[in-house]
Automatic annotation (TrEMBL):
Catalytic activities: RNA(n) + a ribonucleoside 5'-triphosphate = RNA(n+1) + diphosphate
EC number(s) reported in the record: 2.7.7.6
GO MF, any single term: DNA-directed RNA polymerase activity
Keyword terms, alphabetized: DNA-directed RNA polymerase, Nucleotidyltransferase, Transcription, Transferase
Protein name stated in the entry: DNA-directed RNA polymerase subunit omega
Taxonomic lineage of the native organism: Bacteria, Bacillati, Actinomycetota, Coriobacteriia, Coriobacteriales
Enzyme class name: transferase
Entry's family note: Belongs to the RNA polymerase subunit omega family.
GO cellular component: DNA-directed RNA polymerase complex
NCBIfam families according to UniProt: PRK00392.8-6
Amino acid sequence: MSVIKPEIDGLLDKTEQNPFLLCSLASKRACDINNMIRGQHLRVTAIQDFDDITTVVSGKDPISVAMQEIEDGTLGFVKEDFDEDIKGANTIAL
């Protein structure tokens, strides 16, 4: 699978040319979308596999939805918070 729409260059422009940040934002949002859809469908009798339901409901897979939200500017990040999270992840506890 490749990112065709929205274009990868536009997505990287929104995330400071940082592919790690792009993947992190998109994957976190995709998990949120999956959890939201799962919560809605747990109340209904499950007839199809979850992946099929997700695609049927939204017309797109959760990663595509997340990437489009990044492109549209409805999903973003706070640079200072991201930088602090990265620093914390690189700290080794002794």
